[in-house]
Write a structure and sequence with these properties.
By secondary structure, the chain is mainly alpha-helical. Helices cover 77% and strands 0% of the residues. The chain has 12 helices and no strands. Helix 9 packs antiparallel against helix 11 (188-208).
Length: 243
Amino acid sequence: MIREPSQRHALSSEPWRNIMSFFERLKTAASAEWRAYTEHPFTNGLADGSLTEAAFRHYLVQDYLFLIEFARAYALAVYKSPRLADMREAAAGLSAILDIEMNLHVKLCAGWGLSPGDLEQTPPAVEMLAYTRYVLDAGMRGDLLALKVALAPCVIGYAEIATRLASRPKAQAATNPYRVWIAEYAGAPYQEVAAKARAHLEALADLYATPAREAELIAIFKEATRLEADFWEMGWRAGQRVD
């Protein structure tokens, strides 16, 4: 028998489930992984401008390839959507990546001397492949909620990271070469994207996240968060090699 969302929550004997949102529960369960991701030295280097150019350039190129794979994940979300409203949400996300975010990324890369040809001809890094393949696999094996949980560290996490970085003293300084990146993700348009993604995740969790299933979803979130931290580490190591 399929229970209504309120009945699902009534199954839990843990009072914190009724106090914390679904996303906050994911973050709490993955606190170590989340901290390693959101407070990685790569991000701190963005905030004070100390990150090496080689590290950022390597990250930029791989992030372009990452966006292509993320577009595939949103296309999968359309297919996995049980409701028309979910399909429209996923389609809007796909359009935003292909028609807006990738163009902005190309412009950002141009400022660092990277042409579209440079971006498209660079071999994908192991870390980029590992993360994007994990997200796609989680979506293929599971339902729309599982896919959205795998996407959450990136979509929602970048908003949290950028907000933290923007509050740092040197983040918006004219001498900080990474101020444009910080402003892009800390700005209102992206923050709204992340807020909508979080709201949709909460709505899906209300419908499909039974107490018995939550451990599985936490495991997906932990692994996706760990792979996001590996993405930062990939860029960080590139900068260290040059030094």
